[in-house]
Amino acid sequence: MRALLRLSGLIDAMNDGIGKLVYWLVLVAVVVSSGNAVVRYTFNSSSNAWLELQWYLFAAIFLLCSGYTFLRNEHIRIDIVLGRFSKRVQAVVDIFGIVAFLFPMALLIMVLSWPMAKDSFVTNEMSSDAGGLIRWPAKFLIPVGFFLLSAQGVSELIKRIAFLAGLIDEPGEKMHGHS
């Protein structure tokens, strides 16, 4: 189990690092959006590429931070109900949710989106809008984002099982617990 907890720590560190890096894309998106608006209203000029870049940045932020959001326990939950139960019951419910819902959904989306992303890359798919961007970078964000979410699901599953086995004090604590 210690090896699995180390794996969980590596997954956590990966998603934490990616999440903190992707924070900067929010600033880039704001600059692109603001710059596009200033140019559009000041010079009565715009490009579909700028609008698509905003869409790509939003997709990157949303998809690449899904694992980070799960790591930080900031995803949507039913805490109003679940919060009334013990930490052990919460861990069991989390395990069930990860195995029965998160993994099937995330793996299905990852598997189904991969051929679409690969085909887009192979054909060098372009936007159908005049002046638009290539599509494959945005399409690759889908399987990558769901891979990161699935990996974090593995980490959270390991932590919940370790908590139930008495190896860690809290599921969010990774390896702080009994030696």
Automatic annotation (TrEMBL):
It is found in: Cell inner membrane. It comes from the Bacteria. One of its GO terms (molecular function) is transmembrane transporter activity. Residues 31-161 form the Tripartite ATP-independent periplasmic transporters DctQ component domain. InterPro entries: DctQ (IPR055348), TRAP_DctQ (IPR007387). It is a multi-pass membrane protein. The keyword Transmembrane helix applies. One of its GO terms (cellular component) is plasma membrane. Keywords: Cell inner membrane, Cell membrane, Membrane, Transmembrane, Transmembrane helix, Transport. Pfam families: DctQ (PF04290). The chain crosses the membrane at residues 21-41, 53-71, 92-114, 134-151. Part of the tripartite ATP-independent periplasmic (TRAP) transport system. The complex comprises the extracytoplasmic solute receptor protein and the two transmembrane proteins. Belongs to the TRAP transporter small permease family. This is TRAP transporter small permease protein. It comes from Azospirillum griseum.
